[in-house]
Amino acid sequence: MKKNTISFQKKNKPRQISIKWKIFLFLLGFCGVLLILLWFFQVIFLNSFYKGIKINEIKATANTIEKSINDENIATIISTVSENNDICIKVLSSSGDTIYSSHVVKGCIIHSKPDFDEKTLPSEVTNNDGELFQYYNHDGYSRETEPEPAPDSDATQTDNTQTQDKPPSEEKEKEKDTLIYAKTIIDANDEELTLVLNSIISPVNATVNTLRVQLYYITAFMILFSVILALIIAKWISRPIEAINNSTKMLATGDYSTRFKGTGYKEIAELSDTLNYTAKELSKVELLRQELIANISHDLRTPLTLISGYAEAMRDLPDENNSENAQIIVDETKRLTTLVNDVMDISKLQTGNISIHRQPYNLTASLSDSINRMNKLMEMDGYQIDFVSNREVTLAADETRISQAFYNLLTNAINYTGEDKKIIVTQTIFPNPADDLADWIKIEVTDSGEGIAAEDLPYIWDRYYKVDKTHKRAVTGTGLGLSIVKSILDMHHGDYGVTSKLNKGSVFWFTLKI
């Protein structure tokens, strides 16, 4: 049936891509995006980037000269900066006369163009808020000329350019675009000077073609390499996940002996440990479920057999139709009712379908009444329950549920006490270190039974757990009492526990805030 259900679910689920191929496609797409970006930045946008870099370089050079304009070695500084950055530089007075000049690039406009108007440039820069940026094309300028000497006798001029004539065809082949940046600066005498920088932009078409050819080879290699790498990584990552998935399918069929082996990386190892723990706990639950069914079946069979036997005897034998036999039937019916109620209570408590109703009541009096009723009930069997308390205590709690929890502990003590059949209930008040604002009350139920082994103590509050695997029928109850106690006290935010030694009895206790 399970296999048919699983196969039916598979048929109705939409087809999904496995994690291996998803990882493969993601890695392949990532490599594709990188290649596209590489093509865009190295081929399509290369010229724009190059121009942007040259503009920033010219502006940075202008700022350097502006900061040093009052230095006595300004001529040397201009020459050095010009040579290091391949930029032609001129410093003009307000009237357009050249004060400083450095000519290191052949064909620069500010030194070689005959009709470059230096006289009007300072006014143009001033009218443009002190900064002017222009872009020129050298079409039509095929001859470089020597710059005219500056009219100022004190000016220092650096000329690293030699004049030469070239054929128009050769000159045209090497035509280059030019960037001119002009800026108004103030010297120590508060005079306005115009700083002019000229940089040549070399054509990048040949570079772009070279990069394009290289990128063809790089792209082919990267596609092949990324496919192989993506397959390897996808398989390496998905292998442990697929193994866990296969093991989980076996676990879903009820094979709780399945073990998960997580390798590869930390998260998979942690997931494997968690699933191994889950499988272990599920196997425990399955075993306890089987024990519960066996125990409840035993508890149901015994009273049903008695009821059936005594009812048939009363029907068939007139002498057996008496009040004593009728009382046995009534007692066994009550025992069945208790069994069913306990099973329903533990189910409701642990699913949260029962709410508690806190109201102030006298806990000491309630415990005393329960003990007195139990003493009268068990008097014929020789059981004696003593109650020790120093004073009466009133607290806010659900009286019905607390009485149920106490009754279960009392019943458990009666079932497992020693041959002396004595049980002691103790009530004490103590300050809780974790709560300085209120006192707490502690209820202890002590028996003189065989005790509980230390390895069993952590599990006795679990559902369906039995220390003695051979079923022992309780006086009343079903063996679910301790689990009910645990759920009730958790709802009241109380504490509980047990101390026990083999052959020396056990002390079950719980605490509540007063």
Number of strands: 13
Strand composition percent: 15-25%
Secondary structure class reads: alpha+beta
Q: Judging from the principal axes of the Cα atoms, what is the shape? A: elongated
How many helices in DSSP terms?
Answer: 13
Average of the residue pLDDT scores: 79
Structure, explained:
This protein has 514 residues and is an alpha+beta fold. Helices cover 51% and strands 18% of the residues. It is built from 13 helices and 13 strands. The strands form three sheets. The chain has a six-stranded mixed beta sheet with strand order 3-5-6-1-2-4. The protein has a five-stranded mixed beta sheet with strand order 8-10-11-13-12. A two-stranded antiparallel ribbon has the order 7-9. β10 (422-432) and β11 (435-446) form a beta hairpin. α10 (323-351) packs across α13 (481-491). The longest helix is centred in the middle third of the chain and has 51 residues, at 266-316. The protein is elongated. The relative contact order is 0.07.
